[in-house]
Amino acid sequence: MTQSMKRASSERRIGTTAALAAGIFMAVSAAAQAPSASAPAPSWQQGRSADHNSSTLHPIAPILTGRPASELPVDKLKVPAGFKVEVYADGIPEARSLALGDKGTVFVSNRNLKDVYAIVEKDGKRTVTKVLKALNSPNGVAFSKGTLYVAERHRITAYDGIEDRLDNPPDAKVVIDGLDPSNQPGHFWKFLAIGPDGKLYFNVGAPGNIVMPNYQQATINRVDPKTGVMETYAHGVRNSVGFDWDPRSKELWFTNHARDWINDDMPHDTLHRAAKKGMNFGYPYCHQGDFLDPEYGKGRACSEFDKPAAKLGAHIAPLGMRFYTGSMFPDEYRNNMFIAMHGSWNRTTKQGYNVMRASVDGSGRVELKPFLEGFLTDEKADPPMWGRPVDVLVMRDGALLVSDDYNGIVYRVSYRK
Amino acid sequence: MTSALSRRSRRHWGWRLGAGVIAVAGAAPALAAGTDAQREKAALCESCHGSEGRSQAPDTPSLAGQPKQFITTQLVMFREGNRKNAIMNPIAAPLSNAEISELGSYFSAQPAEPAGKPLAAGAATAARGLAERLGCVTCHGAELKGQQHIPRLAGQHADYLRAQLIGFKAGTRFDMDGNMTAAAQALTPADIETLASWLSALP
Question: Which residue of A101, A175, A286, B29 shows the fewest CB atoms closer than 10 Å?
């Protein structure tokens, strides 16, 4: 398998293994067709019903050269009254996850590309440098106590003291390896975050759109960076590419992508609270807490599984989420969540492509409000948008950074009374 | 790529790089798209991919009329080494993102023309049915002209298309997301022949 085979272009796409396996289950559409169409469905089309055979929906890919902000309608971005949005940095092709160094360096990751960038502000001047190269889908970045951790497809590594030597980064120290034994396409790029327990949390997604995962897949896991000991924290999670801990309760919250190819409005992508280790959120049997999978749900019940905290919208593709712990924004924002919606492709009328703000009331009810909008320009067009939010990051001054992988840009949202 | 053509292409490329200056392409049609700067940058490409990206070499793809994002994605992937090709990897290696973007703008704006000859009506209808059943039209579009990061197939050289499909089926052709590798598993050798020759004649 070539290096290129490990690449992936959509949050929802699926792989050869999945498609091969799916060929067994997926006789519905194939059976009615000629022999040459009876082989596996193209990866991300796996799980389609016969009704979808004429669909023209397809995943959207980032522009891998990036685009200069000066060529884009950034003045069309909208934030609530009193807030301001500006370009923080461009020229970071496929800007994905964000992490903040102790000394203020903003680290930015890639998924289809191979690099980690550093944005450094010095004497009022901001510079962008490629600091790590030739990595294997390094989607996850997290920073703690002087060390940058990077989650590639197959391993998690540590770069000690990197902020002091961005021009000459230290060699990677391996925390854990062997996380990608199949080397197949699938949801195997990783989000990475450091929990209150000091452990590194990361996802291993499902190998396909809707397919039986193995014991290691469709999970959130954690590994102790001191010992390399890994354990599974949550099961039945199709693919989570964003999580954070409530600063008050220290409980894990995460976003999750539901399966495709049911219809425009089902099932919803979800927001979850995992108060303890060992919960199971239902994939592939039950989606959004109350929707049995038409195929895998047979003989099962949603009551077997833990429920999501909120439904976020079908195909809306929630990625990065963080609690707002800064002091710049109005008081009501404190401890709210910001969620980056990468935006739907598997929907005839597109939605998302924005950053939402989520607040939780005393009874656990989640309320969603738009925060950063304006990327979506025509919900029926292909492509429907000019940018796609991926991750959010609270800066020390309380401003919020938002990454956009479609253009390779990081935006900054600030507030003044 | 045949060894003879490889040698020829390498000579072209070596000659141009060796000259230290990329020669400006010959007299350009008055109405053709592209700035002078773009034409200058594109001249190296055109030595193999043909004037304005309409390739005359059966195993070298036409670039004319390809979606800009497809061209830029492939050049980035050649540069990064994800897509491997002895000629393209070193050519793409020194290109900046801005240069790649310019090349994408230039070639995407050039008119395409079919490389192949139309099939007989019955064979064409059967081929179209095959392309629909296989789902080619889902991403490449009803007229197979490509979109965004997805290539135009209409009018492309049959030899090139055949080689890509065989490579996808074998799992050796670069595939950003594994989609074509999965899709190609369904293809019989006869399907590949049918699709390659039918697609090459599409306007």
Answer: B29
